[in-house]
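Appendix C. Worked example: Secreted protein
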Amino acid sequence: MVSVWNDATSLPRDWSSMGRTSRKRSTLANRAIAASAALILGGGGLVAANFYASAHEGWGDDRTGPRTQSAGQAVSTIDCPEVVNSIEEVPDDQRFAVDRELATLDTQITTYYQRFADNKERVQSDRTFAQNEILTPLKNERLVIIQRIVALIDRSAERPEGLESTAPCTLRGDDNDGQDGGGDQNGGQNDGQNDGQDGGDQDQNQDGGQDGGGQDDNGDGDNNDGDNGDNNGNDGNNDNGGQAGNGPAEGDFVDIQSVQPNVQEPRQRRGASRGTFTTDCGVNENGKFNSDNVIAAPGVSNGAHHMHDYVGNQANDAFASDDDFANGDTTCNNQGDKSTYYWPVLRLQNGQNEFDAGEDGGGNDQNVGEIQTPSEVTLTFEGNPRSKVTAMPKFLRIITGDAKSFTNGDANANASWSCTGFEDRQLKDKYPICPEGSQVVRSFKFQSCWDGQNTDSANHRTHVAFADEDGRCQDGFQPIPQLVQRIVYDVPPPVFDGDNASVFAVDSFPEQLHKPITDHGDFINVFDEDLMDEMVDCINDGRRCQ
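Step 2, the predicted output written as structure tokens:
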């Protein structure tokens, strides 16, 4: 059940022209858009939507609170349109500046989410406060940055139209009420994991959202200031669950043994490239962490608002150039692989402080608990089930998954959670509860089709794509080796109540509430050309190499 509040004072005249409608969205997001578009504007006040009333009740016309509100149903986070998804082109000479402005939009959301969390009880009961203190000022600040982005692009390319319409945000609840525990695990849970994450649906309607997650409302959260001192896991007051009060909650976990097998591999055809190439780059045992994202937010410290594990290239931070990567050290056994592989850390929220408890990306962004070192990391490059692969260009950048998929919808979600011994059962929007002796597994199958020209794109996505379910790349794209990333953790099963409460969760933007669906991975190819050629030959010849 969901509540959605809209700041609809500047709803776009032609909502259908916005980039948000060009991709597959969650049911919740579609409902929000439909409800917003149906509003009659006037008075500049906060307009409430009451839709799908048979499923739940929204907000009424009174300005003091909900007409009806079932127990546990409340707004739980801020949902803003992903601006980069509406940007079709960024000229090369403005890309760095545009990425910096996009990162500023993320920081604004983080700031206003903190204000929301600090005043959540009042926000729930006073819609005027919610509008005046959160939605309207956030919209106004976003509009300033969006207009800067428009001006930057207009200097060297066609001026983007309608981008200002992405400024308004909403306050929303969670479509996962946590009551069923298992969710829709058996049929739709894998939703594209089988063959490289549903390439047929994703192809070029890919978001620019890089980081995120979400939570439901039945947890027992705690403080909001990122200080994970003595709060003992989930014993708190903020009803999003988790040690910092922004997730995860009990409804975000499911027993892996209750999930039916749902993985189907594509059939290998006569021209398939059946080989594999494995690179061993360690498990980040040397502890390289930062909260930057040099792909999505180059030149911006704390551009990710969550902490990353790094293996491979050790030069990776927000300011690293291609030359820095080319000259950097690597943790990979094969020194010809200076690629950088990074992903959000997994934490055990057990009431203990980590080194970053008072730092950006850590406690300051409500990512708390002890960072877990993987027990195993496997990085394998695989072939195509119907054709040969071609070499990846040096410095090719690939982001897989969407760290903001809780609010963006699942069009670019590529999370895949399981347990050792049960990897024929994959979860997309739940964390697994593993039986004794089994460990938690995060895995990704990266995009494996390349446009043959670009190492990056305006939204950092559309230069690469997933193959369809038969392994075929869309027109204009060619198959490249597919990075398959598998990360294993020896973490205890979650305990939701009591003095020993603890749960594991992936780092996220604070407003994404540590939802498992927000898991994602990043890769920059820095293989030397000779080793890349060896990889391609190995895969195309059907050999297993490392």
